[in-house]
């Protein structure tokens, strides 16, 4: 029996628990990727260390979430504060892994979307920090997503191409037209590239829900800032994280949302 055949025998709760633990562990690695890309360091060397005093972290200081809580958010060597981003990323990774296990079980589809979720977390963290979506994640993700969607997820190739090329094409057109009309960038090229792997994996039919969800989430993030008196015309927010949110929401609950909307509109 294959690995996936063995794990398919696990009940849903056990599968979600195992996935959550895997998500926590990977979330710690995602933190490393985000921090070291932003600071232009290698993710391989040096080993995990305090950003302030450079002391190498001991094994018990590397336990996801628990180490941060036990250390009360401070370095065990120099006492400098450790950002709340670290446990947050780990918890988000764990929650997404558990949701994906609930949706797909520990199947090949789970593996595909678990990796995609990791890419989304790292890309979002970097975009929030420095407003950049690295090509290694967007274009690299697209190169992996295209064959994976067709041969692992068994999606019709027409839907896969329509999602990736159509989504990137529309976003590219919007980017060009907005800049011509307003003289400023409304979307970055990174957002256009990000639509390639997102579109390939969700397909053309579900792409509108991805974009709508991303737009609503972005709007919800702007409203509180507008209420605080900030000028939303000059407000700069990264759209990549919201696209990732829309993608992950669609993967986990897209069919249910679409069915609910259809029932609401038709009254059936």
Output the radius of gyration. Answer: 20 Å
Distance between the termini: 44 Å
Helix content: over 70%
Mean pLDDT: 89
Instruction: Provide the structure class.
Output: mainly alpha
Number of helices: 9
Low-confidence stretches: none
What features would you describe in this structure?
This protein is mostly helical and 268 residues long. The chain is built from nine helices and no strands. Helix 6 (135-151) runs antiparallel to helix 7 (157-182). The longest helix has 39 residues, at 189-227. It is globular and about 60 Å long. The mean pLDDT is 89.
Question: What's the gist of this structure?
Answer:
By secondary structure, the protein is mostly helical. Helices cover 71% and strands 0% of the residues.
Describe how the helices and strands are arranged.
Elements: H1 3-7, H2 12-38, H3 66-70, H4 85-104, H5 108-130, H6 135-151, H7 157-182, H8 189-227, H9 240-266
Any key phrases for this structure?
single chain; 268 residues; mainly alpha; 2 domains; 9 helices; 71% helix; globular
């Amino acid at each position: 029996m294959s690995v996936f055949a063995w794990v398919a025998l696990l009940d849903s709760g056990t599968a979600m628990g195992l996935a959550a633990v895997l998500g926590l562990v990977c979330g710690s690695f995602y933190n490393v990727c985000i921090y070291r890309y932003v600071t232009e360091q290698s993710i391989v060397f040096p080993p995990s260390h305090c950003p302030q005093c450079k002391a190498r972290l001991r094994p018990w200081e590397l336990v996801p979430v628990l180490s941060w809580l036990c250390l009360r958010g401070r370095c065990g060597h120099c006492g400098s504060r450790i950002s709340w981003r670290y446990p947050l990323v780990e918890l988000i990774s764990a929650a997404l892994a558990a949701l994906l296990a609930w949706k797909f079980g520990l199947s090949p589809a789970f593996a595909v979307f678990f990796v995609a979720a990791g890419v989304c977390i790292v890309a979002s963290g970097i975009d929030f920090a420095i407003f950049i979506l690295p090509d290694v994640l967007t274009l690299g993700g697209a190169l992996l997503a295209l064959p994976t969607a067709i041969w692992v997820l068994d999606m019709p190739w027409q839907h896969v191409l329509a999602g990736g090329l159509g989504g990137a094409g529309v976003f590219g057109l919007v980017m060009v037209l907005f800049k011509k009309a307003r003289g400023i960038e409304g979307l970055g090229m990174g957002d256009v590239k990000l639509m390639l792997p997102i579109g390939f994996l969700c397909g053309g039919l579900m792409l509108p829900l991805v974009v709508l969800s991303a737009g609503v989430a972005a709007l919800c993030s702007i409203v509180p800032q507008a209420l605080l008196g900030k000028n939303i015309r000059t407000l700069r927010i990264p759209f990549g994280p919201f696209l990732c949110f829309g993608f992950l929401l669609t993967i986990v609950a897209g069919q249910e949302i679409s069915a609910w909307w259809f029932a609401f509109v038709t009254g059936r």
